[in-house]
Specification:
The chain is of the alpha/beta class.
Length: 341
C-alpha cells in the first residue's frame, strides 16, 4: 500500500496553509483504506504503524523509537503537537463559553459589531411603503488583541530516550493544559471588561450588579436573570471559592442538581444556567452570559512547534505555543454579580 512508500522529511511542515497531517493525507488519502484493516486510521496513524511506533498503552515504545530512522524522526513533531492539543481539549472549558471560533492566517483581525439603541430594539409595525428598521453591522475600531501562550520544552535526548511515550504524553498534555488555562484567562478578561478595558469609550464591558460585600443570595441570581431581555442567561462562570459559596445557598441544594453532577460532572442552577468553575475567574464575581452570543475566539494558525529543533536536535530545546484572542460580540449578553467590598 502507498503509506509504506512515502518519503518523509521536515519540508512537509513548511507547506504554506497546510499542516503535516494535511500534507500526508493528500499523498495518502484515508478514503483508499475503506474496508481494510487500516480503516479508522488517518495518514499519520498509518505512518506510526509503518514504523511500528506505539505511542500509548502498556506496550508503548520509548521516545528513541521515533529517531530510529531519518524518516520516522519527521513524525515526532506531529506526535508532540497532537499530545499538546489533546491536553488543551481535555482541560479546557473554552468550547462551553464561546459562540464561535474564527481561524485566521495573519496577525491582524478586526471583528464586527452591531450596536443597537433602545429605539432600534423596540418592536415596531412596518406600514405599507415605509422603510424597515435598520441594523447596522460594521467593523470594530480596533484589532482583536492576540496573545501567544506556550512553554519552552527543554530536555536532553539522553534523559528522555528510554522514557515510554505514554509517560511523555502526560507531560505534553500538561503543556496543553497550561496553554488552555491562559486562553480561558484571556476569555474571562474580555467577557468582563470588553475588548479594550483601557479606553472605556471604545469598550463593551459587562453590566455589573454590585453587592458591596453582602453575601450572595438567590435573589441576586434572579436579578441577574432579569437583566437578560433579548438574550438568554445560559452559562455562569465562577471561581472555586465562589462556587462553594453558591452551593451553600439553600435554593441551589436541589437533589436533581446533585444527581446531574454525579452523572455528567456538570452543575446546573435553579435558573437553568450551566455553572462552570474556573480558577481563571476572579473571586467575588459571578459572570453570567449567553454562550451563543457573547464571545468570539480568534486563533492565528494551529499549535506552533519548532519542528526543526524537535527533529534535528532530538528535543533539547523547542518552543510550543498557540496564538489566540477574544472579541466581545454583544455587550448586553454578559452580566456579572460583584460581591467585592
Amino acid at each position: 500500500m502507498n503509506y509504506k512508500n512515502l518519503k518523509l522529511d521536515k519540508s512537509m511542515y513548511r507547506v504554506k496553509g497546510k499542516d503535516f497531517t494535511t500534507v500526508l493525507e493528500e499523498l495518502d488519502p484515508s478514503e483508499n483504506y475503506q474496508n481494510t484493516s487500516l480503516a479508522g486510521l488517518d495518514a499519520f496513524g498509518r505512518q506510526l504503524k509503518r514504523f511500528d511506533i506505539k505511542v500509548s498503552g502498556v506496550g508503548s515504545d520509548a521516545v528513541e523509537k521515533f529517531f530510529s530512522t531519518v524518516e520516522s524522526s519527521a513524525l515526532f513533531p506531529e506526535y508532540v503537537k497532537r499530545a499538546v492539543i489533546q491536553g488543551m481539549e481535555e482541560k479546557t472549558v473554552i468550547n462551553d463559553i464561546i459562540a464561535t471560533k474564527t481561524k485566521i492566517d495573519s496577525m491582524d483581525y478586526r471583528s464586527i459589531t452591531s450596536t443597537l439603541t433602545k429605539d432600534d430594539k423596540s418592536l415596531k409595525k412596518v406600514t405599507e411603503g415605509s422603510s424597515l428598521p435598520v441594523t447596522e453591522i460594521k467593523s470594530k475600531s480596533r484589532l482583536v488583541k492576540l496573545s501567544k501562550h506556550g512553554r519552552l520544552l527543554t530536555a536532553s535526548y539522553e534523559a528522555l530516550r528510554y522514557q515510554k511515550l505514554d509517560l511523555f504524553t502526560v507531560t505534553l498534555k500538561q503543556i496543553g493544559a497550561h496553554i488552555s488555562y491562559n486562553q480561558i484567562k484571556d476569555a474571562v478578561d474580555v467577557l468582563m471588561w470588553g475588548d479594550n478595558r483601557d479606553e472605556p469609550d471604545d469598550n463593551n464591558a459587562m453590566i455589573e450588579i454590585v453587592k458591596n460585600g453582602d453575601p450572595l443570595t438567590y435573589n441576586d441570581f434572579l436579578e441577574m436573570w432579569h437583566k437578560f431581555t433579548e438574550f438568554e442567561l445560559n452559562t455562569m462562570l465562577v471561581s472555586p471559592a465562589t462556587m462553594m459559596e453558591i452551593l451553600n445557598i439553600e435554593e441551589f441544594r436541589d437533589p436533581a442538581t446533585g444527581l446531574n453532577f454525579q452523572g455528567t460532572g456538570k452543575l446546573s442552577t435553579p435558573i437553568g444556567a450551566n455553572l462552570i468553575r474556573s480558577s481563571a475567574v476572579p473571586d467575588n464575581y459571578v459572570i453570567g452570559f449567553d454562550k451563543n452570543c457573547a464571545l468570539e475566539m480568534v486563533v492565528a494558525g494551529d499549535v506552533l512547534l519548532e519542528y526543526d529543533k524537535l527533529i534535528d536536535n532530538q528535543i533539547e530545546r523547542a518552543a510550543i505555543s498557540c496564538i489566540s484572542g477574544f472579541s466581545k460580540i454583544h455587550k448586553d449578553s454578559c452580566v456579572a454579580i460583584n460581591t467585592q467590598y
